[in-house]
Each structure stands twice: as C-alpha cells, then as structure tokens.
Specification:
Elements lengths: L1 E4 L4 H14 L2 E4 L17 E4 L7 H9 L4 E4 L9 H7 L3 E2 L6 H17 L1 H9 L17 E5 L3 H12 L3 E5 L5 H5 L3 E2 L2 H7 L2 E4 L13 H6 L4 E5 L8 H9 L3 E6 L21 H7 L4 E3 L8 H21 L10
Parallel strand pairs: 1-2, 1-3, 3-4, 4-5, 6-7, 6-9, 7-8, 9-10, 10-11, 11-12
Helix pairs in contact: 1-12, 2-3, 4-6
The chain binds nicotinamide-adenine-dinucleotide.
Nicotinamide-adenine-dinucleotide binds next to helix 4 and helix 6.
C-alpha cells in the first residue's frame, strides 16, 4: 500500500525502513503532523499512519475520506486521539498496535519512582559540581511500602510484578480484575481504598470518558499525605490544576509524569529556544518534587521494533484480506 506516514521522526524511520524491506509498502515519511491544514499531503496514498500527537478528528477524517484513504494505521496502543465514530461513519477502518513492549512502559514508571525517591538526577549534577553534600537527597526504602496500581492490563501487570520484586505490597483497582494478577499476590480493592492506603499510586488504565480526570481534587485529597503519583498512561487521567494545588499544599509528596493532557503542542519537539506558553505545564516544571519526561516511556529499541512490525503487518493484512486482527472494533 502507499502509506503517508505523518509526524515521522528519524528515530522510527530506521525501524520502519528495515522491516518494510520485507513487506514492500511504499512509505512517504512526512515530518508534518496530521492536521486539517496538512491532510492534503495524504493525496495519492491509500493509508495514513499516525502517532498520538496527530489530529485525527472528524474534520481531518472527512478530508482523508475525500482523498480516498482506505485505512488509518495508528502506530500506538492508545487511540483516544482518533474519532472512531467519525471514522466508522466515513467507512475508514482504524488499526493499531495493541501491544509492543509492556516492559518499556512499566520499567519507565519504575525509573520515575526511583529517581524521585533517591534523587539521582540531583545527585548527578551535584557530584559533577564537586558538591558531595547529602542534604535534600533523603529517600525511603521501597521494601515494605504499599503501591497502588490503577489498571492491571498488560503494562499494569508488569509494573505490579516489578514492585512485588522490590518487596512492596501491591494493591490494585481495575473494572475487570484479572485472576493471574491475584495469583501474583496483588489485592484488588475499591479505588478509594487503593488511593487511601498507597504510598505510591501508578496509573495504567486507558483514557476513556469514565477515566477522564480520574485523579482530580477529590481523589488527590483521598491519597495518603506525602504519597507519590506516577502517570505513564495518558495526560487526561489527571486534572493538572488540581495536582498543582495538591503539590502546593504539600499533600502530594512527589509526582512523576510521562504524559500531560495538553502535550500535543509540546512533546516530541525541541522547543528549548522558545517560551513555554502553557502556564499549567510551566508551574508543574517549577516543583522540585515533580519529574516530567516527554512521553518517552515506550521508547526502547524493542518497543520501536515491535511498533514497526505490527503496524506494517496490520497494513499488509488489511491489503490482503480487507480486515485486520488489530482493527479497533468500537468501544
Ligand atoms: P491494557 O488494555 O492491556 O490494560 C488497560 C487496563 O485498564 C485493563 O485491565 C482495563 O480493564 C483497565 N481499565 C479500563 N477502564 C478502567 C477504569 N475505568 N478504571 C480502572 N481500570 C480500567 O492497556 P496497556 O497496554 O496496559 O496500556 C495502558 C495504557 O498505557 C494505555 O491505555 C496507554 O494510554 C498507555 N501507554 C502509554 C505509553 C507511553 O509511552 N507513555 C505507551 C503505551 C501505552
């Protein structure tokens, strides 16, 4: 198929080019993100490949349908950025990469926890500067602490297993509890109890209407004083303004974020020479106990290889059969 690959980064091209040598699609790598203004670049292609910061709303889908686009191939697991109802109405199927490396994301959540706790990011700079003072670097043993996992799917399960390995007690909340997670020794409890009892809460559920601002002023107030919150799932799970209030009051002790609700205008680009206009984001950056990474939890070699393989396999399968096992079939 002829694929218009929007928002292409150099780091992913190498993985797609290598695997496509076996698949034989014609890929046009476009640096532009998919937007109403750039949708015209899809002309002459059969398929549009998108990432989480592309706009795939009803307007864009309408423009793609006019150009005869037959397939949207999301090179991500999450698909909250795609208007599935509009795609269905227009008869454009959407395929995605349901799993690539749950280890990549779970391990990044752990990296955020360890960095926030033991302050290795601050120690790195201090020691290079010849400052060997330990003031301000005090952490806590993870062993024996209670960790709450919200969403025990593929990533949440790997995360829970790692935390059990640290000697933590793991509590979980999921609308669909999983037997194999219970077998690991994880206790499912109501959301309020998980929030109240956990020293660390890590979010691993998808962003859907029911989970939008799952962490808001009320839920933050229910968390243990001094607790740590980790979000490697989707920015919209957390009400960032309420989080700022909870950080200012000292109720929340530390926050690790790999995602942010308004990240589309920020992440994946070098904006180091520009003024950040998002005041909420700028305020979050100003806290010493907040660590933000720019949606890099997925960013391992194994994950990029898996994303390239599944995306191109999805396109090949659709080309051959008109369907794909990774087609999103509605919620
Ligand atoms: P998954 O579908 O395997 O698991 C999601 C789990 O959340 C399921 O067990 C589901 O029952 C549960 N869930 C659904 N609604 C819920 C609710 N209202 N309350 C509690 N639990 C609920 O997904 P996954 O592969 O583990 O991925 C989890 C999320 O991680 C994705 O939705 C995606 O947004 C995010 N993600 C982030 C990155 C990154 O780079 N930061 C990369 C991949 C995925």
């Amino acid at each position: 198929m002829k694929i218009a690959f929007f928002g292409a980064h150099q780091f992913e091209r190498e993985f797609f080019d290598r695997y496509n040598a076996r698949k034989g699609h014609e890929i046009t790598f476009l640096e532009e993100h998919l937007r109403p203004e750039t949708a015209v670049l899809a002309a002459g292609h059969d398929c549009v490949c998108v990432f989480v910061n592309d706009t795939v709303d009803a307007t864009v889908l309408g423009l793609l349908a006019e150009q005869g686009i037959q397939l949207i191939a999301a090179r991500s697991a999450g698909f909250n950025h795609i208007d599935l109802d509009a795609a269905k109405r227009l008869g454009i199927p959407v395929v995605r990469v349901p799993a690539y490396s749950p280890f990549a994301v779970a391990e990044h959540a752990v990296a955020l926890i360890l960095t926030l706790n033991r302050k290795t990011h601050r120690a790195f700079n201090r020691v290079r500067d010849g400052n060997f003072s330990l003031d301000g670097l005090l952490g806590f043993d993870l062993h024996g602490k209670t960790v709450g996992v919200i969403g025990t799917g593929k990533i949440g399960q790997v995360f829970a297993k790692i935390m059990i390995g640290f000697g933590c007690e793991v509590l979980a909340y999921d609308i669909a509890p999983n037997y194999s997670v219970r077998e690991m020794g994880v206790q499912y409890q109501p959301l309020g109890d998980v929030l109240r009892k956990s020293d660390i809460v890590s979010l691993h559920c998808p962003l859907v209407t029911a989970t939008h601002h799952l962490i808001n002023g009320d839920s933050l107030a229910r968390m243990k004083p001094g607790a740590m919150l980790i979000n490697t799932s989707r920015g919209g799970l957390v009400d960032a303004k309420a989080l700022i209030d909870a950080l200012k009051s000292g109720h929340i002790g530390a926050v690790g974020l790999d995602v942010y609700e308004e990240e589309a205008d920020l992440f994946f680009e070098d904006l180091s020479g520009q003024v950040i206009e998002d005041d909420v984001f700028a305020r979050l950056l100003s806290f010493p106990n907040v660590l933000i990474t720019g949606h890099q939890a997925f960013f391992t070699k194994e994950a990029l290889q898996g994303i390239a393989m599944t995306t191109l396999d999805n396109v090949s399968e659709f080309e051959a059969t008109g369907d794909s096992k990774n087609k999103i079939r509605g919620r």
